[in-house]
Design brief:
Two copies of one chain form a homodimer.
Chain A lengths: L4 H9 L21 E6 L3 H11 L4 E7 L3 H11 L6 E2 L15 E4 L6 H10 L3 E4 L7 H13 L4 E3 L7 H11 L6 E11 L9 H4 L3 H17 L5 E7 L13 E7 L5 E7 L1 E12 L2 E6 L7 E6 L8 E6 L6 H16 L7 H17 L6
Helix pairs in contact in A: 2-9, 4-5, 5-10, 8-10
Chain lengths: 368, 368
Amino acid sequence: MTISRREFSRLGALGFAAHAFSTVPVLGQSEQKKIGYCVIGLGRIADHHMRGIAQSSTSTVTALVSGHRDKAEKIAAQYGVPKISIYSYEDMDRIRENKAIDAVIVCLPNSMHAEYTSRSAKAGKHVLCEKPMAISVAECEAMISACKAANVKLMIAYRLHYEPLTLKTIKMIRDGAIGKVEAIDSANGFNIAPNEWRSTHALGGGGPLMDVGVYSLNATRYLTGEEPVAFTAVATTPDHDGRFQGVEENLAWTMKFPSGAVASCTTTYGASMPGYYKVFGSKGWLEVDEFGYEGLHLTANYRNDRNAPATKIDERNPEPDPKQFTRQIDHFSRCIRENRTPDTPGEEGLKDMQHIQSIYKAAGITLG
Amino acid sequence: MTISRREFSRLGALGFAAHAFSTVPVLGQSEQKKIGYCVIGLGRIADHHMRGIAQSSTSTVTALVSGHRDKAEKIAAQYGVPKISIYSYEDMDRIRENKAIDAVIVCLPNSMHAEYTSRSAKAGKHVLCEKPMAISVAECEAMISACKAANVKLMIAYRLHYEPLTLKTIKMIRDGAIGKVEAIDSANGFNIAPNEWRSTHALGGGGPLMDVGVYSLNATRYLTGEEPVAFTAVATTPDHDGRFQGVEENLAWTMKFPSGAVASCTTTYGASMPGYYKVFGSKGWLEVDEFGYEGLHLTANYRNDRNAPATKIDERNPEPDPKQFTRQIDHFSRCIRENRTPDTPGEEGLKDMQHIQSIYKAAGITLG
């Protein structure tokens, strides 16, 4: 590992703590009691979390919160959750009394993250909350306060911060492989199905920027190690078929970083847009395709000086889904066991939300 | 060919005329007299043009204009140009008297395009001018006026408008293969060597946007068939090593089109940035890598509806450099012979310059 101590500290400040690079196994973890999780909301992302937990040696699903009792009972049977540990949204504050629950995972629509994070904190449970952290800066701040007041940990589910190829890419940039970062180009979007909660302002809180554009935004921050300081944006909602209820369909934006690096990004709910980022540096470029649950692919081409031979990299992370979720939950469970702050705490989600607000503002869209 | 008559007309309006798609050979062209070209400026791009002309059955190099007599004589010998047809910049107005010269190719630094186009027009010669057409809207307008007044043709060297894979890509979009265009992402840039005329404001007139970002801009226009109506931009010049004399180093910008499509683009002189565009539509996406002289690569993935099987395309144009230049010069020579307006007339260059001015303005940069 050629990373310098100073760079290392910067990585730590960015939410990439020392142990993220460590290959030393956590000894004896199978003998320790597993951290018990209550999954709140049983949609698609909850399924990934639960499958990831099933492969984890540190964590286990011990309770569920759902508005659909039948669905919850089936899932409970699958993961060995006792029926008595199935809660409705109305009575979920009773999780306080359930000693098998150490923490919750908030898998609800964006506009419900703040309420259920605060309720879980008040019930004395640590919180792993899905991204986007919430739908406004004020909500993010309230969530951080609620968790601090209750003395519970808050982690935002930025799973790529725990994904090896992403960590390798960041390290390459910090080590200067591609020289000074001059520009980043990133896109991430998808063609949304009709009647998704995410295409409503009430539940999504925003459109594709909030939901998937945040991957591009977050990537520019971990790639540069900087916070963007200026934003421009344009948003449109052609809405050719009536799918959109108050959220943007397409959004393109630019950002400027203190070093002089610039970024151009795009997101959409109206088209197939497989995610990627490309980083252009003074010594060469690198690209990672896919922000998804598997199949991340790194290519790079750089040279030490103009006349040096090119170094070429072509590498994939072969780990199938739900490995990212296992890595993520293992991190949070270790933080709980060892009383450490997660690499992606509430403050990381708050920063993205501040920038999202700036981007929406630049596009003429007011949040909330 | 499934393109509709209406779409076909639109393509014509965009500078993709009927014959661009025609596979009917121009008969007897080898028996016709070749159009004679005077190449003004003998830098890198001139070399591509001359090599392209050497492979053309419609065109021939008959004269040169250069400030370096020795260099010009070597090139003249190579292309069979008589010494008497070598001119200096001072005496080039004498090309009027040279009957072997039908047209000129302006291969000079950007800031000299306007002057030499007007001088050539006044000498009664048709003009093929390199892109960017000039360095201001006023210059572009003056060039168009000068050529009209002299009754000579003016074509801007947008070589990709004559490149088969680009034409196929445009036709796919017009035929609706990827549905409605929602977003375009494009980048094009390179790491400029020290002491290039292009990194000075005096000769370049602008930085990478003017020089190579114009490929992304022009692509968004031929891909959508629309003119952008709103612009945002950010420019930076970190200039880590003193290469930049009054031009931007990095520029990221967004554009909005009347249909609601958005575009995000980036350009740089500070990093290796191989060109590409990605078009995201309601039925799928397509991508073309490389704006260069060869090696264009089209990939696409689209489906008629959500549940239909995907159509995948992976196709390269195998034609080596200087074939694009041969195709381009053949087009202009035919336009001269047949008294037709080129597919990429001065008005096409003017439109890009108007948009470039808007982008620079959005970035807080004033041209001229």
